[in-house]
Write a structure and sequence with these properties.
The chain is mainly α. It has 14 helices and no strands. It folds into 2 domains: 1-192, Growth Hormone, Chain: A (Up-down Bundle); 206-400, Growth Hormone, Chain: A. Helix content is 76%, strand content 0%.
Amino acid sequence: MFGRIMPSPGPPRVLALAQLANSIGDGAYYVCSALYFIRIVGLSPAQVGFGLTLAWAVGFVASVPLGHLADRRGPRGTAVLLAVATALAVGSFLFVRSFPLFVLVACAYATCQCGLAAARQALLAGLVDRARRTGVRARLQATSNAGLAVGAASGGAALHLDTEAAYLAVLAMDALSFLLAALILLRLPAVPATPAAPAGEPALAVLRDRPYALISFLNMIALLNMPILSLVIPLWVVQRTQAPSWTVSALLVVNTLAVVLFQVRVARRVTDLGSASASVRLAGAVMFAACVVFALSSAVSGAWAAGLVLLLGACLQVAGEMLQASGAWEIGFDLAPAGRQGQYQGFFGSGAAVARMLGPLLLTTLIVVWGTPGWLVMGGVFLVSGLATGPAVHWARRTRPDPADSTDPTGPAGPVDPEGARTS
């Protein structure tokens, strides 16, 4: 499976191996962490929810400064440092036995994760030429999903054992996976650091880039689809449909396998800002259709019929997810000025932190409480954000020079994936 989605030898493959290493650990962590904090640490669900919300809020704020650090000090060294720091944060969870300490460690974990994501994106931009970045990013996403699936199986074994030792082993494995990722990243060639901004120019230029801020906001709205399968659908299936409870696991498997098998193929159609905008626009329409189908599942009689409707909704949802991701990667990379990829990717990628922070409360209230009207409202929000992205990209293009007229001082600094987004 990994051989089909891995990039060709060179820096892209090293990046993929690093992402694979820590995604396996993260997959196990995501499955077990909530029960560990509640059953072993002794926190209440409300305390866990509040702590994680605060943590991702801190991570959101830290994304741009840490991305700027990657620009100024070099993305490879910054990524290695943040991978090690993430390992230490995860390892610290082993010793957490109080709510204040949990909040402190969770904030450190989320901050390091958000900064690491920005540094990795800057590293990719520095090592892979502009035309191939989206294709390589698609392979990294597919590799990451495959790793998460493998890790989730390990986490499932720990849940079955349901012992303190099993949970602690998962946390230790996740910490070691980030240390392994740091060692792998050291195999990459160094990317030159960007000099300090000239006097009179803002160091964090992204905070004054209004078109890019609008695009990042629209991307953040699209990323609210993240909690749908992991949080909303499980509650929806149990409370609002006649489908069997194991349908939730089946839908998650469908999502994971679809990304692993098809993300690279979907991204192959995105080659410039025009095709990227079209991909995001189509994603909004597909996500609207998915929300309509999910809403209909509550009106279907019979377990198997409800399950089939939910399966159709999940297929539409993952199609929208892959279309949106492919377009967003191209837009996020292509509109970022040369030499400032770190801070720009930190800002663009902070939408994921906001989705983790606000998504659970917003979507459970909107969908699980409101029911069918909530699904339709959420679908309409996805549709509008997709339609608005094209004009926002057009505005951004008018405010900066043609990418073909500028030279990117950060890369590529080494071999690139000669196949781009083609399948192996």
